[in-house]
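stuck on this chain:
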Amino acid sequence: MRESAIEFALCAHVKKIGGLCEKFTSPGKRSVPDRIVTLPGGRVVFVELKAPGKKPTILQQRDHEKRRALGCEVLVIDSLTGVIDAFPI
């Protein structure tokens, strides 16, 4: 399965549960998470998507650690099951 298929499933699932799934880009900065998910109730999650079995790069891991240190929620999802587990209905 490709990362793009997981990303499509994430966006469809988040929309189904009433949230927003926005592409995250930061000009001039590499290694930011792929998506920002905003859910009803105010939960905001940075999501890094990977193909099954793949891991974030060292630079991505550093970015995730910085965001977590600031109190942000950052998830790495590499499967369709991971989408459902991260955002249950």
